[in-house]
Design a protein that fits this description.
- This protein is of the alpha+beta class.
- It has one domain (about 1-164): START domain (Alpha-D-Glucose-1,6-Bisphosphate, Chain A, domain 4, 2-Layer Sandwich).
- It has three helices and seven strands.
- It has a seven-stranded antiparallel sheet with strand order 1-7-6-5-4-3-2, with helices on one face.
- The longest helix has 29 residues, at about 135-164.
- The chain is globular.
């Protein structure tokens, strides 16, 4: 299953990217969604890229059909890898989320680019569930959850940038 979203922020790409890379902001973003045990495993340059690796505990309200194959509390390992800035400040990157002990993974692409006097942030992802029989139903349900999470992250960033 796939999901995507985009949001326009009232700041230049460099300011948006700076916000994405601040450990206290990363921690606050996850905490605002109820995640706990949030750890920043790495956050810094890796060659020409900028890599952010996190681990966090996430609780999910599972539908009945998924409760036999998934746990409601999971540890998620996420790696965001941003490429170098272009002349106009735009950047492209990838993300991957591994759900420890569950047959679920998410990956995709992301970008920021100038948009008038602000920045457009776009995200596209794919959810893969490797479970016989109900895997497709779980992936379809996860798609809605992923979109809700993405919208909450967009809202969080929008509020932080507006407050600065």
């Amino acid at each position: 299953m796939t999901f995507d979203g985009d949001r326009r922020y009232p700041a230049e790409p460099a300011a948006v990217f700076d916000l994405f890379c601040q450990p206290d902001v990363i921690t606050a973003r996850y905490a605002s969604q109820g995640d706990r045990d949030i750890e920043i495993l790495s956050c810094g340059p890796d060659g020409d890229d900028f890599v952010i690796e996190t681990r966090r505990t996430v609780e999910i309200n599972l539908p009945g059909f998924a409760k036999k194959v998934l746990a409601p509390t999971n540890t998620m390992l996420q790696t965001d890898r941003w490429g170098p800035a272009e002349r106009d400040g735009s950047r492209a990157g990838t993300f991957a989320v591994e759900v420890r002990g569950a047959p679920v993974s998410t990956s995709g692409s992301m970008s920021i680019a100038p948009d008038g006097d602000g920045t457009r942030h776009q995200v596209s992802g794919t959810i893969e569930v490797k479970v016989a029989l109900v895997g497709g139903r779980i992936a379809k349900w996860s798609e809605g959850t992923a979109r809700d999470t993405l919208a909450a992250e967009f809202d969080f960033h929008q509020a932080r940038l507006a407050a600065e």
